[in-house]
Please model this.
Amino acid sequence: MKDTAYFKNKKVTIVGFARSGVNAANLLYDLGAKVSITDNKDNALTRANVIKLKSTDIKVELGNHSREIVQGRDFVVLSPGVPSKALPVIQAREFKVPVISEIELAYLLCPATIIAVTGSNGKTTTTTLIGKVLEAAGKKVFTCGNIGNPFSGEVEKAKDGDYICLEVSSFQLETIDKFRPKISVILNFSSNHLDWYNNMQEYLAAKSRIFMNQARCDYLVLNYDDPVLRDLAKKTKAKIIFFFSDKDLNPNQAAAQAVGSILGISKDLCLKVFREFKGVEHRQEYVAEINNIKFINDSKATTVESAIWALKSIVQPIIWIAGGRDKGLDYNIILDLARKTVKEIILIGEAKDRIKKVFNGVLPVNEAASLEDAVDLAFKRASNGDVVLLSPMCSSYDMFKDYEERGRCFKQAVKKLVNKK
Model:
């Protein structure tokens, strides 16, 4: 790592005590910082994370955010998913304490070449594909961010000459300062997180921060088919590389191949990787088949556009499980497609009433109190040759800690059906 002495004896508070918070805390402790953690949740998950800390000298505050844990700090680190309007951020501004994201922290220490991927949809798959292309080319690569290990959990292992493939969200980009990827990728731009941002312009501004520090020697990879992104080419100093989807490459593959071309990796090798790629967990993941009824886990589909992709990918009739925490999205745009492909929709979570208003009269609509109940009901309602699809169009935070837990819950519910068979 580089610049490690900077953090020695610094007083740092980390906001958010999930996986990234634990990794950031342990990293800073190893560097000699005086670390505190605050999380407004006091539950089994946050309490279990206490034992993952390297020292009892790391102060942990659960169930509230006190002013004292922010006041007098050298800086505050935000974990992914913590809003910039959270109370500790407001307190930090009041006390004039700098606020940075977890990816900014790791970036300041990182000696490796960073490839950062953002977009409204497809980030996880594309970041994974880029990592696999680099591995196939013999590069040492760490694929991290919102998939696998957090950036702060991998940076200690990275060396000069290695590569970091990093999935980044608009939330994380809000609080970067010096973060500068060698290659930035913006896959697409569509309605998302309107429960968080006031409008689409604000959301685009957050996404665009990925290239704000890039120079002429860096690269910005953009989707030429997206006119909003095409227009961003005028707003950066970086070299622009456009990618195009075609009959041979879907958009995620085209973006990964574009990154490969920058690094001198042949298209033939990229195509070989794409052919062998088995997919990402929780993204159109085949789970099981029971009585000729297939179960597909697409828990990663937290937007309407992601669910559209899933519905288009399945040729059999669909029993569709959807819902979760509403993100202010327009569910009407999927209606025509759903009318052609879906037999019935089963709704869960906080958003079910809003989604029900959209689909009433278009499809048969049922509701379930839990995801497990939804799986049981879907199986009862499905016929020979149908597909039961979890593709929520919503975030998971009303019922689960993240989309991964939601996906695992779906798979466990299906496994119970298999065991009953």
Q: What stands out?
A: The two ends are 53 Å apart (CA to CA). The chain has three domains: 9-97, 104-276, 285-420. The chain is about 35% helix and 20% strand.
